[in-house]
C-alpha cells in the first residue's frame, strides 16, 4: 500500500470542514447552522444507503398509502420522510418542518425547538424509483425571528428569504449541492470514507446552454410562449444549432445536469395544470435559489421565482430555470404575449 498517497487522502475538503470554515468567518455564530446541516447530511447518507439497497431489501414498491397530492406513496418515500423528520427534529435546531409527504406542517416539540424552518421533498422523482434512475432530496432553510411564536406564516415567505438551499442526488454517485447564499458548491460522497468531499467548488452555470429539458408529452396543452420557445429550441431563428432535448423526469437529475452543462429546465403551466406541477416551497424555491447563486435565472412565467409569496404550504407554480440567456429568451416571449393581450 502506498502510505504517503493514503495519508494525502486525509487532507480533503469535507463538507463538515467546508461549513466549519464558513462558520469561522462569522465569530458571532453559535454553530447552530453547522449542526442542522450535519443532521441533513446524515439523513442524505441514510437515504442514499437505502436507495442503493432498495432492490435487495425489497423497499421497492407501494407502502399502501396515498400522500397529500393523491399519489401512491412508495416504501422508499415513506422511509425517507421518516428519516428526515427524525434527523431534523433531533438536531434541536428546527421549529417547523414542511415535507412533500405530509399534508400539515410539523411543529417541533417546544423543548427541542431551534431557529430554523426546513422545507423539503425527502425523495423527489418517485416515478423513477423502481427502475433505478436518479432521484434525490431537495431542501430549503428559513430562519424564524421568535421561536416562542412559531406559526405556519414563518414558512410562507418568498424564496429570496431562504438562508440556504440544496439537494442530494442519488445517482451513479451521491452528490450534495449546497448554497448558503455565497455561491454554489458540490460535494460527492466517498463511500469508503462515508464523507462528502468538495469536488465541484463554486459552480457557475454556463451563460447559455445547448440543452432544453421539458416533458414534451404535455405540448398540446401548453400556452403560446412556452410552445413558441420550445419551437425555437428545435428551429432556431438566428442560424444557431438546434438545442438537444434531455428529460429524466426527476427534477433533481434534470436540474443538476442543467446546472453543470447549462441550458434550460421547464415545467410550464398548461391547460390541465394552470399552476404547473412543481411545488413552490420545496422544489421551485430551492432550485431557483441554487440557479441564481450559480449565475442563472428562475422565472415563473410572470416574474422572478424567488419573489413569489406562497399562500399555502403545498402550492404549485410553473417554472423555467437555467442559463441566464436561455431564461431571458423565454421571459421576452412571455412579456410579448402580455403586451399582445393588453
Ligand atoms: P415525480 O412525479 O416522479 O415525483 O414533482 C415530482 C416530479 O417527479 C419531479 O421530480 C419531476 O421533475 C416531475 O415530477 C416529472 O413530472 P412529469 O412526469 O409530469 O414529467
Automatic annotation (TrEMBL):
Any one annotated GO CC term: cytosol
Cofactor section: Mg(2+)
Keywords (A to Z) from UniProt: Carbohydrate metabolism, Cytoplasm, Hydrolase, Magnesium, Metal-binding
EC numbers for this chain: 3.1.3.11
UniProt-listed InterPro entries: FBPase_C_dom, FBPase_class-1, FBPase_N, FBPtase, Fructose_bisphosphatase_AS
GO molecular function: fructose 1,6-bisphosphate 1-phosphatase activity; metal ion binding
Pfam family, one: FBPase_C
Name this polypeptide is given: Fructose-1,6-bisphosphatase, cytosolic
Lineage, uppermost ranks: Eukaryota, Viridiplantae, Streptophyta, Embryophyta, Tracheophyta
Amino acid at each position: 500500500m502506498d502510505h504517503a498517497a493514503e495519508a494525502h487522502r486525509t487532507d480533503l475538503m469535507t463538507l463538515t470542514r467546508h461549513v466549519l470554515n464558513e462558520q469561522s468567518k462569522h465569530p458571532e455564530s453559535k454553530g447552530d447552522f453547522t449542526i442542522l446541516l450535519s443532521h441533513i447530511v446524515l439523513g442524505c447518507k441514510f437515504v442514499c444507503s437505502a436507495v442503493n439497497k432498495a432492490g435487495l431489501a425489497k423497499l421497492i414498491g407501494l407502502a399502501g398509502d396515498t400522500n397529500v397530492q393523491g399519489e401512491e406513496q412508495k416504501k422508499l418515500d415513506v422511509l425517507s420522510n421518516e428519516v428526515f423528520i427524525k434527523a431534523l427534529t433531533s438536531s434541536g435546531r428546527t421549529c417547523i418542518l414542511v415535507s412533500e409527504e405530509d399534508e400539515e406542517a410539523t411543529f417541533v416539540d417546544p423543548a427541542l425547538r431551534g431557529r430554523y424552518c426546513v422545507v423539503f421533498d425527502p425523495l423527489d422523482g418517485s416515478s423513477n424509483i423502481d427502475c433505478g434512475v436518479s432521484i434525490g432530496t431537495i431542501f430549503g432553510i428559513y430562519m424564524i425571528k421568535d421561536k416562542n411564536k412559531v406559526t405556519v406564516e414563518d414558512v410562507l415567505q418568498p424564496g429570496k428569504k431562504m438562508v440556504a438551499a440544496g439537494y442530494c442526488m442519488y445517482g451513479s454517485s451521491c452528490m450534495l449541492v449546497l448554497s448558503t447564499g455565497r455561491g454554489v458548491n458540490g460535494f460527492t460522497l466517498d463511500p469508503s470514507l462515508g464523507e462528502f468531499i468538495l469536488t465541484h467548488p463554486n459552480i457557475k452555470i454556463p451563460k447559455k446552454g445547448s440543452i432544453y429539458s421539458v416533458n414534451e408529452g404535455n405540448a398540446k396543452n401548453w400556452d403560446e410562449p412556452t410552445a413558441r420557445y420550445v419551437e425555437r429550441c428545435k428551429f432556431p431563428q438566428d442560424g444557431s444549432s438546434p438545442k438537444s432535448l434531455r428529460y429524466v423526469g426527476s427534477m433533481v437529475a434534470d436540474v443538476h445536469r442543467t446546472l453543470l452543462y447549462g441550458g434550460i429546465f421547464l415545467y410550464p403551466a398548461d391547460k390541465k395544470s394552470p399552476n404547473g406541477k412543481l411545488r413552490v416551497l420545496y422544489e421551485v424555491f430551492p432550485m431557483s435559489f441554487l440557479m441564481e447563486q450559480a449565475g442563472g435565472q428562475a422565472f415563473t412565467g410572470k416574474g422572478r421565482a424567488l419573489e413569489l409569496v406562497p399562500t399555502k404550504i403545498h402550492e404549485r407554480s410553473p417554472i423555467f430555470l437555467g442559463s441566464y440567456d436561455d431564461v431571458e429568451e423565454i421571459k421576452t416571449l412571455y412579456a410579448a404575449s402580455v403586451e399582445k393581450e393588453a
